[in-house]
Amino acid sequence: EESFAEQEGEARLALDLALGRGGDQVVIRADGETQTFGGKSQALAKNTRVRARVVAQAIHELISQADMVLVMGHAKEDYDALGAALGVAYMATSAGVPAHVVISEDQDTVEKLVDQVQATPGMEDLLISEEAAQELVTPQTVLFVVDTHKPEMTAAPSLVEMIQNRVVIDHHRRSNTFIPDPLLVYLEPSSSSTCELVTELLQYYSDTIELNETQASALYAGIVVDTKNFAVQTGIRTFDAASYLRRSGAATELVRDLFALDFETILTRADVLTRAEKIDGDIVCATIPDDAENAQILAGQVADMMVNIEHIHTSIAIYYNGEGYSASVRSDGEVNVQRVMEELGGGGHQTVAGGQFAPEETPEEIKNKIVAQIRAQKEENAK
């Protein structure tokens, strides 16, 4: 860079990126590009809740100064994104500030929860489209982005440009692209889910918080999904958050109904598993039929099942997303699939990751690309 001030700015951005990804790595910024090295270990969970308390109070102040709060997660929302968004929206409404959750057109993954929200008294008009949200924007509007920090991955990218007051709450490792100039960032890669972060914030936000059954169950469902029923990246604070939600009225039977599968889906999943391919003795890859309903959900479930097979360290499920192919990748911790998929334009966590590919790429080509990255990481780790 031309001046020391610019160099310091670039260095601080690189440091923020390294810390936002859990530390344990080197970040180099040169010629406008960013490269990361390391980041092999799991981010350590923090036992202190001081930061959650401080962030909760800061959010309270931001909301009190707003005339409207809009909340959105990533496009093609999952339970963690929608559950966290409902929790943040409740923070606003409990403070007397009107709020809406902006959702994308593709709601297949959370269709049951959307129906439940719209059937809950007082929440009928909570969920709105991107177009409806654009008409509500004022200079005092505050936008909360949850479960993602990439502008291009949000449910309504246009709102990121329209609204200047932005807050980011996420648990993914920080990537090169980030919501521009946020007023507040609460990024905790060690946390199990964004729903866990929002649940902690709710406990410090106000003494009068009273979640209804739908809100508590949605937050609980987000934790259950991202921890694979409390089996992955689960710490003490995860169980504390789940316990708080149960006391607040989270209904386990409602959560069970959200995850219930129909008979045809079970048969399709069984058929996919029978045609799965084993690679290198510790990788399994399966391809979801192009005409399968809820292919994204099915791919995640198949990948979760396959990584639990004995001696399997990594699983890959490839599915058609309507425009091209995507992949859901899982690991038992032996391979950092977040690094694997980041090299291919995706991202995620150390044990759960995914990505979308160009429309012209075939499932076979995608499989070979992912396997090549896994092999390269194994070779690097063996040195």
Task: Explain what the structure shows.
- The protein is 43% helix and 18% strand.
- With 383 residues, the protein is of the alpha/beta class.
- The strands form three sheets. The chain has a six-stranded parallel β-sheet with strand order 5-4-3-6-7-8. Strands 9-10-11-12-14-13 form a six-stranded mixed β-sheet, sandwiched between helices. A two-stranded antiparallel sheet has the order 1-2.
* Helical/strand content category: alpha/beta
Gross morphology is globular
Q: List the uncertain runs.
A: none
Q: How far apart are the termini?
A: 35 Å
**What share of residues are in beta strands?**
15-25%
The amount of helix comes to 40-55%
The helix-strand sequence is HEEHEHEHEHEHEEHHHHHEEHEEHEEH
Mean pLDDT: 89
Number of strands: 14
Give the strand line-up of the largest sheet.
Answer: 5-4-3-6-7-8
Q: Whole-number radius of gyration?
A: 21 Å
Tally of DSSP helical segments: 14
Largest sheet: 6 strands, parallel
Which helices and strands, and how do they pair?
Elements lengths: L3 H17 L4 E6 L2 E6 L11 H15 L3 E5 L6 H16 L4 E4 L8 H8 L8 E2 L1 H5 L6 E6 L10 H6 L2 E6 L13 E4 L6 H12 L7 H14 L9 H12 L4 H8 L3 H12 L2 E3 L3 E5 L7 H13 L6 E7 L4 E7 L5 H6 L4 E2 L3 E5 L6 H20 L1
Parallel strand pairs: 3-4, 3-6, 4-5, 6-7, 7-8, 10-11
Antiparallel strand pairs: 1-2, 9-10, 11-12, 12-14, 13-14
Helix pairs in contact: 2-7, 3-7, 3-8, 7-8, 7-9, 8-9, 8-10, 11-12
Short description:
The protein has 383 residues and is of the alpha/beta class. 43% of the residues lie in helices and 18% in strands.
